């Protein structure tokens, strides 16, 4: 049974890394896969804690860029505004996530039908936005005005509902606020760092009394798999969406959400 569980953790970790930064809802995919696999993690912590692997993937791929921003902070108003903008965008999710943590984990995370519906609705929204004749105003993630950053932060709060997608909600928000497709995805990458790190730290704190040493191999397996897969996805994604947009991910959501609904109705 232990080997089977490790294999499931590996599969779910790869799924997390594959889906975290594309607008298809990594949490929704993992919860649905876990539901049909019968995978049960302590306090639903696995699904959140393996996101640290995806965070480290961003840090690895963007290390040079992040280091330059950090060293430019004392002398560059642009760098300071960008960091402040990311923090402002992070704030709404931090507040709502902390206040609604119990409801999210015990109700929303336990409702596979809701996840499938949100996958489908989100796919329709992506198709709609991808076809809008938008004229981008912003082409660099570092140049988003602070009000735009805050608006994107409120869009991110929609992802409290699993199946919505954190990256999907922030990307759609950025596109509607005037960003081009590449800068929208890149801002979503940067915003993921404080958001996912905060969710990781808060969930680890909330589950500190129920996690045991037996949970560590499972979490570590998922973490490593998520890291490797996320590095691959991050290196590929920006160029892809710049050329092709987000329609592929919309159809992906519709397919997974539809298949999940059928499976739930047939097998429960």
- Classify the helix fraction into a percent range: over 70%
Structural class by helix and strand composition: mainly alpha
Radius of gyration over all CA atoms, rounded: 18 Å
Quick check: average pLDDT?
A: 89
Number of domains: 1
What is the approximate shape? globular
Count of beta strands: 0
How many distinct helices?
13
Oligomer: single chain
Largest sheet: none
Topology order in helix (H) and strand (E) letters: HHHHHHHHHHHHH
Low-confidence residue ranges: none
Terminal Cα span: 23 Å
Strand content: under 5%
Catalytic activity: di-trans,octa-cis-undecaprenyl diphosphate + H2O = di-trans,octa-cis-undecaprenyl phosphate + phosphate + H(+)
Membrane topology: Multi-pass membrane protein
Protein name: Undecaprenyl-diphosphatase
Family: Belongs to the UppP family.
Describe the protein's architecture and organization.
- This protein is mainly alpha-helical.
- It has one domain.
- The chain has 13 helices and no strands.
- The chain has helices at 2-19, 26-37, 46-49, 51-61, 63-72, 77-99, 101-106, 112-131, 146-156, 166-176, 181-206, 216-244, 247-267.
- Helix 6 (77-99) packs across helix 11 (181-206).
- The model has no long low-confidence stretch (mean pLDDT 89).
Q: Which key terms come to mind for this protein?
A:
single chain, 268 residues, mainly alpha, 13 helices, 0% strand, UppP, cell wall biogenesis/degradation
């Amino acid at each position: 049974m232990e080997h089977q569980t490790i294999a499931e953790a590996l599969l779910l970790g790869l799924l997390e890394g594959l889906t975290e930064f594309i607008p298809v809802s990594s949490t929704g995919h993992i919860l649905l896969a876990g539901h049909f696999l019968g995978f049960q993690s302590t306090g639903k912590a696995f699904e959140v804690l393996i996101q640290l692997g995806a965070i480290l993937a961003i840090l690895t791929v963007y290390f040079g860029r992040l280091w330059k921003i950090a060293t430019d902070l004392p002398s560059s108003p642009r760098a300071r505004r960008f960091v402040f903008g990311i923090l402002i965008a992070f704030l709404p999710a931090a507040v709502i996530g902390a206040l609604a943590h119990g409801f999210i984990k015990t109700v929303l995370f336990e409702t596979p039908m809701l996840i499938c519906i949100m996958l489908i609705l989100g796919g329709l929204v992506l198709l709609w936005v991808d076809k809008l004749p938008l004229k981008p105003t912003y082409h660099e993630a570092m140049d988003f005005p602070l009000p735009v950053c805050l608006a994107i932060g409120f869009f991110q709060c929609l992802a409290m509902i699993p199946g919505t997608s954190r990256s999907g909600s922030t990307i759609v928000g950025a596109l509607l606020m005037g960003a081009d497709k590449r800068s929208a995805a890149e801002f979503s990458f940067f915003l993921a760092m404080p958001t996912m790190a905060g969710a990781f730290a808060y969930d680890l704190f909330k589950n500190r009394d129920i996690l045991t040493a037996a949970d560590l191999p499972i979490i570590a397996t998922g973490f490593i798999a998520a890291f490797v897969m996320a590095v691959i996805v991050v290196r590929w994604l920006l160029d892809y969406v710049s050329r092709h947009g987000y329609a592929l991910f919309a159809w992906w959501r519709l397919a997974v959400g539809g298949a999940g609904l059928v499976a739930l109705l047939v097998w429960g």
